[in-house]
Amino acid sequence: KLADDCANRALSDREGGGLAKSFPLPVENDESRPRIDLVVFIINLTSELSFQSAEASLKYLEPGYFLGKVCFMVSNVGKL
């Protein structure tokens, strides 16, 4: 529920928040894209595809970006 609420909030945020399903981000509108202050990986523990998508996206982030700008949110922990 929390992961869904966060994703819905990012989609409806009018202050520049955004949501991407995976990295890399598309190059169109690259120059007008707002600065990225935080990356949240939402991982559904009951979905192998969700884990694989997050894992594949990690390689597109600079290593230094992980210091305070990345967090992982997991869902469906109780269903394991």
Automatic annotation (TrEMBL):
<protein>
    <recommendedName>
        <fullName>Centromere protein M</fullName>
    </recommendedName>
</protein>
<dbReference type="GO" id="GO:0000775">
    <property type="term" value="C:chromosome, centromeric region"/>
</dbReference>
<dbReference type="GO" id="GO:0005634">
    <property type="term" value="C:nucleus"/>
</dbReference>
<keyword id="KW-0158">Chromosome</keyword>
<dbReference type="Pfam" id="PF11111">
    <property type="entry name" value="CENP-M"/>
</dbReference>
<dbReference type="InterPro" id="IPR020987">
    <property type="entry name" value="Centromere_Cenp-M"/>
</dbReference>
<keyword id="KW-0539">Nucleus</keyword>
<dbReference type="InterPro" id="IPR027417">
    <property type="entry name" value="P-loop_NTPase"/>
</dbReference>
<keyword id="KW-0137">Centromere</keyword>
